[in-house]
Protein backbone atom coordinates (compact mmCIF):
# COMPACT_ATOMS: atom_id res chain seq x y z
CA UNK A 1 0.00 0.00 0.00
CA UNK A 2 2.84 2.40 0.84
CA UNK A 3 4.50 1.81 -2.53
CA UNK A 4 1.24 2.54 -4.35
CA UNK A 5 0.80 5.81 -2.45
CA UNK A 6 4.44 6.71 -3.15
CA UNK A 7 3.82 6.18 -6.86
CA UNK A 8 0.46 7.96 -6.89
CA UNK A 9 2.00 10.99 -5.18
CA UNK A 10 4.92 10.93 -7.66
CA UNK A 11 7.52 10.64 -4.91
CA UNK A 12 9.74 8.06 -6.62
CA UNK A 13 12.61 10.52 -7.11
CA UNK A 14 12.64 11.86 -3.55
CA UNK A 15 11.65 8.78 -1.55
CA UNK A 16 14.07 5.92 -2.24
CA UNK A 17 13.20 2.32 -1.44
CA UNK A 18 15.58 -0.18 0.12
CA UNK A 19 14.51 -3.81 -0.10
CA UNK A 20 15.51 -5.47 3.16
CA UNK A 21 14.77 -8.89 1.69
CA UNK A 22 17.47 -8.41 -0.93
CA UNK A 23 19.91 -6.07 0.83
CA UNK A 24 21.51 -7.39 4.04
CA UNK A 25 22.95 -3.95 4.89
CA UNK A 26 19.48 -2.42 4.63
CA UNK A 27 18.18 -5.09 7.02
CA UNK A 28 20.95 -4.30 9.52
CA UNK A 29 20.11 -0.61 9.35
CA UNK A 30 16.39 -1.34 9.76
CA UNK A 31 17.01 -3.38 12.91
CA UNK A 32 19.39 -0.72 14.25
CA UNK A 33 16.84 2.07 13.73
CA UNK A 34 13.62 0.26 14.62
CA UNK A 35 14.72 -2.61 16.84
CA UNK A 36 12.84 -5.14 14.71
CA UNK A 37 12.77 -6.76 11.29
CA UNK A 38 9.54 -5.10 10.22
CA UNK A 39 8.88 -3.37 6.93
CA UNK A 40 7.69 -0.97 5.73
CA UNK A 41 9.64 1.47 7.83
CA UNK A 42 10.30 5.17 7.32
CA UNK A 43 12.28 7.78 9.22
CA UNK A 44 11.50 11.45 8.84
CA UNK A 45 12.53 14.31 11.06
CA UNK A 46 13.93 11.91 13.62
CA UNK A 47 10.60 10.11 13.96
CA UNK A 48 10.14 6.43 13.06
CA UNK A 49 7.05 5.24 11.22
CA UNK A 50 6.51 1.48 11.37
CA UNK A 51 2.90 1.01 10.27
CA UNK A 52 1.71 1.32 6.68
CA UNK A 53 -1.27 3.47 7.64
CA UNK A 54 0.97 5.88 9.58
CA UNK A 55 3.45 6.16 6.70
CA UNK A 56 0.63 6.77 4.21
CA UNK A 57 -1.00 9.40 6.43
CA UNK A 58 2.35 11.18 6.85
CA UNK A 59 3.08 11.17 3.10
CA UNK A 60 -0.38 12.46 2.21
CA UNK A 61 -0.26 15.25 4.79
CA UNK A 62 3.20 16.32 3.64
CA UNK A 63 2.23 16.44 -0.05
CA UNK A 64 -1.30 17.87 0.36
CA UNK A 65 -0.12 21.49 0.90
CA UNK A 66 1.80 21.35 -2.39
Please, could you describe this protein's structure?
This protein is 45% helix and 9% strand. The protein is mainly alpha-helical. A hairpin with a 2-residue loop joins strand 1 (42-44) and strand 2 (47-49). The longest helix is centred in the last third of the chain and has 12 residues, at 52-63.
List keywords for this structure.
mainly alpha; 9% strand
Condensed summary:
This protein has 66 residues and is mainly α. The protein is built from three helices and two strands.
What form results from the Cα inertia axes? globular
Which percent bin holds the helix content?
Answer: 40-55%
Give the termini distance in whole angstroms. Answer: 22 Å
Q: Radius of gyration in whole Å, from Cα? A: 12 Å
Total number of helices: 3
| Sheet with the most strands, sense and barrel status | 2 strands, antiparallel
Question: How many DSSP E strands?
Answer: 2
One letter per element, helices H and strands E, the order comes to: HHEEH
Structural class: mainly alpha
Q: Identify low-pLDDT runs.
A: none
Strand order of the largest sheet: 1-2
* Residue share in β-strands: 5-15%
Element layout with pairings:
Layout: H1 2-8, H2 24-34, E1 42-44, E2 47-49, H3 52-63
Antiparallel strand pairs: 1-2
Amino acid sequence: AVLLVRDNLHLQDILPIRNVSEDPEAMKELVKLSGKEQAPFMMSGGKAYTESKDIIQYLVTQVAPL
